[in-house]
């Protein structure tokens, strides 16, 4: 993930990216299933396709791209699992 995000920051529309990786949990067996990422991107006019292209992933894998409406709420949501031992986080600018 670090290499992909580092490459993303080198594009014209992106100044900085903070991301966290979290494990998904299967609610029935309470076991880890797959990782997902939350990204805070400082950039200009980014679309879902822009994000997917810069990360070299399928656009269907990018669930949502929104402007930040409430800094405290979104940062709490993105960092909620940051302290778990399986979590990973980094910042690039």
Architecture blueprint of SSEs:
Layout: H1 2-9, E1 14-25, E2 32-43, H2 48-55, H3 71-78, E3 88-92
Antiparallel strand pairs: 1-2, 1-3
Describe this structure in words.
This protein has 93 residues and is α+β, with helices and mostly antiparallel strands. It has one domain. It has 3 helices and 3 strands; from the N terminus they run H-E-E-H-H-E. It has a 3-stranded antiparallel sheet with strand order 2-1-3, covered by helices on one side. A hairpin with a 6-residue loop joins strand 1 and strand 2. The longest helix is centred in the N-terminal third of the chain and has 8 residues.
**Total of helices:** 3
Q: What level of helicity do the residues show?
A: 25-40%
Count of spatially separate domains: 1
What low-confidence regions span 5 or more consecutive residues with pLDDT below 50?
Answer: none
| Structure classification | alpha+beta
What is the residue-averaged pLDDT?
Answer: 82
Major beta sheet, strand line-up: 2-1-3
Tally of strands:
3
For the largest beta-sheet, the strand count, sense and barrel status come to: 3 strands, antiparallel
- String of helices and strands: HEEHHE
Distance between the termini: 15 Å
Relative strand content: 25-35%
As a whole number of angstroms, the C-alpha radius of gyration is 14 Å
């Amino acid at each position: 993930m670090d290499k992909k995000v580092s490459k993303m920051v080198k594009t014209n529309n992106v100044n900085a990216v903070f991301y966290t990786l979290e494990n998904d949990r299967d609610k029935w067996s309470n076991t880890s299933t797959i990782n997902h990422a939350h990204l805070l991107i400082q950039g200009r006019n980014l679309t879902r396709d822009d994000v997917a292209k810069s990360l070299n992933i399928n656009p269907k894998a990018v669930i949502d791209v929104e402007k930040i409406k409430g800094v405290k709420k979104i940062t709490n949501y993105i960092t909620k699992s940051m302290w778990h031992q399986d979590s990973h986080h980094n910042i690039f600018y």
